[in-house]
Design goal:
CATH architecture: Alpha-Beta Complex
Largest sheet: 9 strands, mixed
Distance between the termini: 21 Å
CATH topology: 2-enoyl-CoA Hydratase, Chain A, domain 1
Helix content: 25-40%
Oligomer: single chain
Low-confidence stretches: 188-203, 207-226
Number of domains: 1
CATH superfamily: 2-enoyl-CoA Hydratase, Chain A, domain 1
CATH class: Alpha Beta
Structural class: alpha/beta
């Protein structure tokens, strides 16, 4: 079984799921045990749940299955982002019937990436696979935000960072945590944070491209193609 990357807590207010850190540091692609364990724990009880999310991303297949399980869950699912919901973690966030962000939290979406090897035909297959993965991720973003697919594709191409206010403006989130219910925060231009705007504070927290550790490494079939998101 892969390394467990989630924890549950129960209180009189209901169940809480904590996703803190990389999603599936060890890939659960081809792992029949870990997804079943996660689903069994999710379905072990009923009622509304709260998901506290603070993750730089991870295994795209794990994130997709978690998204599906949360979407299929019969109770209400509230997602609270208290740090960062980047990459694959942003997909998990889209499963919330309500998504709340801390005023100091961030969300990031970008294109899936892969490491592949082989001849031109194999490279072509990798490109086609990445295109299909991107379209599947856009499905989740489109369902939550209602934004045109072309707009979402452009945001992913640009590796877009959103503060809480911008995420709400675009439809990725619904509310800023700790804000009075009837008080509206002043409208802003809703900055899209560039890589350079956040690199100093976040570079140390995000796995570097090309290093097979932490964030979004997935072994694809016997050729050992690696899918990253």
């Amino acid at each position: 079984m892969g390394k467990k990357f989630w924890n549950w807590a129960e209180s009189k207010d209901g169940r809480t799921l904590y996703l803190d850190g990389p999603i599936a540091e060890e890939t659960w692609f081809g792992d029949e045990v870990t997804p079943k364990q996660f689903k069994a724990e999710l379905m072990s009880s009923t009622g509304d749940i709260t998901v506290w999310l603070n993750s730089p991303g991870g295994d795209v297949f794990a994130a997709s299955q978690i998204y599906n399980m949360l979407m299929d869950y019969k109770g209400n699912v509230t997602v609270k982002i208290d740090g960062i919901a980047a990459s694959a973690a942003s997909v998990v966030a889209m499963a919330g019937s309500e998504v709340l962000m801390s005023p100091v939290s961030m969300m990031m979406i970008h294109n899936p990436m892969t490491i592949a090897f082989g001849d031109a035909e194999e490279m072509g297959k990798a490109i086609s696979m990445l295109d299909e993965v991107k379209e599947s991720l856009i499905n989740a973003y489109e369902l939550k935000t209602g934004l045109p697919r072309s707009k979402l594709s452009q945001l992913m191409d640009a590796e877009s960072w959103f503060n809480a206010q911008k995420a709400i403006e675009l439809g990725f989130a619904d509310q800023i945590m700790f804000s009075p219910e009837k008080e509206q925060l002043p409208q802003t231009e809703g900055l899209l944070f560039s890589k350079m705007a956040v690199v100093n504070s976040l570079l140390g927290k995000l796995p570097r491209k090309g290093k097979p550790q932490g964030m979004d490494i997935t072994v694809l079939d016997k050729r050992l193609d690696l899918l990253k998101y």
